[in-house]
Design goal:
- The structure holds two protein chains of two kinds.
- Chain A is about 35% helix and about 25% strand.
- Chain A is of the alpha+beta class.
- Chain A has a domain of about 140 residues: OB fold (Dihydrolipoamide Acetyltransferase, E2P) (Beta Barrel).
- In chain A, about 25% of the residues are buried.
- Chain B is an all-alpha fold.
- Chain B has one domain.
- Helices cover about 85% and strands about 0% of the residues of chain B.
- In chain B, α1 packs antiparallel against α3, α1 runs antiparallel to α5 and α3 packs antiparallel against α4.
- Classes of the chains: A alpha+beta, B mainly alpha.
Chain lengths: ~250, ~100
C-alpha cells in the first residue's frame, strides 16, 4: 500500500518535473531567439561598406538564382539595351514613389539582365535607350517578390522588377535579380542620368531593438514563473492542510 | 493587502490599455495599412507594452500569493495581461473578491 502511494507520488513528481523542464527549455529558447533577432536588427542598422566592383559573370550566372553573397555587390558588365519598360511606384530616396526606366540589357553570348537605368521623367516609356555597346556599373539587387504597381498586361509596364516577367521578351537566358545603374558609359563617355538611389537592399526583421529585448525579459521571466509555481503549489498545500488542522482543533 | 491590490489594479488597467493600443492601433497600422509615417508615430506602443507586462506579472503574482489563490487562478491572472480585455476582467474580479473577503 505504502509503496503504491510512493510510486504514484514519484510518478507525479517526475511528470511535474518533466513538464516544468520542457516549459523552461521552451521559454529560455524563445528568449534566446528574441535576443538573436535583436542582434540581427542591430546588425542591419550598421552601414554597408561596398566592396570594389566585380564582373557580373564572376558572381552570377543566367538562369540560376543569385547566391546569398551576390545581392548588394557593385557589378560591371557591358552589352546593349533591348526592350524598354517603365516600373511604376518604386520606392526612391526618402521613401518617395517614383517610376523607373528599366531596360533588358543583353550581354552578348551570355544572357540578359534587367537594368533600372534612371528615374523616369514621363509616365510612359521613352524608348530612347542608347543603341550600341554600353558599359554599366551598378548595384545588383535581389528580384522583387511583391507587385509595386497593380499588375497589368499593358506592354512596357513592369509591376515589379522580376526576371520572370520578361522571360518571353528576350531569346537569351535571364539573370536573376536586377541592377540599379550607378554609371553608364557609351564609347567611354558617361551618360548623364537622373540616377536612382542605389541604397543596399536589406532584409528586415520586424519590430524594434528594445521591443525584442523586452520580449527576452518576458520569456525568461516566464521560465522563472515556471520554476516558482511548483514551490508555490507545495507551499499552498502545506498552508491549506495547516488551516484544515487548525479548524478541526 | 490594500497596497498590493492597488498596485495590481493599476498595472492591470495600464497593461489592458497598452494591449488595446497594441492590438487595435499598432498592429493594424503596421500590418494592414502599411503606412510608414503613421508607423513611426506608434512605434513606442509595442516597446512600452513589452516592458509593462513583466511589471504586471510581478504584481499579479504578488496579489495572487496574498489572496491565497490556487495555482490555476494565479496562471489566469498572469496570462490576463496578454489579452486586451482579460486584464480588465482580472482587475474587476480582484476588486470584487477583496470586497467580499
Amino acid at each position: 500500500m505504502v509503496s503504491r502511494v510512493n510510486l504514484s507520488k514519484f510518478r507525479k513528481l517526475v511528470s511535474t518535473l518533466s513538464v516544468a523542464l520542457l516549459l523552461i527549455t521552451i521559454f529560455i529558447g524563445l528568449g534566446i531567439w528574441q535576443l538573436q533577432r535583436a542582434a540581427d536588427l542591430q546588425e542591419l542598422q550598421k552601414p554597408v561598406i561596398d566592396k570594389p566592383a566585380i564582373s557580373l559573370l564572376a558572381i552570377a550566372k543566367p538562369s540560376v538564382a543569385l547566391a546569398g553573397s551576390a545581392p548588394n555587390r557593385i557589378v560591371k558588365f557591358s552589352g546593349s539595351y533591348g526592350k524598354t519598360f517603365i516600373a511604376p511606384n518604386q520606392k526612391g530616396r526618402e521613401n518617395n514613389r517614383e517610376s523607373w526606366e528599366v531596360g533588358i540589357f543583353e550581354i552578348p553570348n551570355t544572357g540578359a539582365i534587367l537594368v533600372a537605368r534612371e528615374i523616369s521623367a514621363t509616365s510612359g516609356p521613352r524608348n530612347l535607350l542608347p543603341s550600341g555597346p554600353v558599359a554599366i556599373v551598378g548595384r545588383l539587387m535581389p528580384h522583387q517578390n511583391e507587385d509595386r504597381a497593380v499588375f497589368t498586361n499593358e506592354v512596357n509596364v513592369l509591376s515589379r522588377l522580376d526576371s520572370a516577367l520578361i522571360a518571353d521578351k528576350t531569346n537569351l537566358p535571364i539573370f536573376d535579380g536586377f541592377v540599379i545603374v550607378q554609371t553608364e558609359a557609351i564609347s567611354g563617355i558617361e551618360s548623364r542620368l537622373k540616377l536612382i538611389s542605389s541604397e543596399p537592399a536589406r532584409s528586415t526583421v520586424p519590430g524594434y531593438y528594445w521591443q525584442h529585448i523586452s520580449y527576452v525579459v518576458i520569456w525568461w521571466l516566464m521560465a522563472g514563473v515556471v520554476v516558482f509555481l511548483p514551490f508555490y503549489q507545495k507551499f499552498k498545500k502545506n498552508e491549506d492542510s495547516e488551516t484544515d488542522l487548525r479548524s478541526r482543533n | 493587502m490594500s497596497g498590493v491590490l492597488k498596485r495590481f489594479r493599476f498595472m492591470a488597467i495600464f497593461a489592458g490599455v497598452m494591449s488595446l493600443l497594441l492590438w487595435f492601433v499598432e498592429l493594424p497600422i503596421v500590418y494592414i495599412l502599411n503606412n510608414e509615417n503613421w508607423e513611426s508615430n506608434v512605434k513606442w506602443i509595442p516597446i512600452v507594452h513589452g516592458y509593462v507586462y513583466p511589471f504586471y506579472v510581478f504584481t499579479a503574482i504578488h496579489y495572487s500569493v496574498r489572496a491565497r489563490y490556487d495555482i490555476k487562478k494565479m496562471i489566469f491572472f498572469i496570462l490576463a495581461g496578454t489579452l486586451p480585455v482579460a486584464s480588465f476582467i482580472a482587475e474587476r474580479r480582484a476588486l470584487r473578491e477583496s470586497r467580499q473577503s
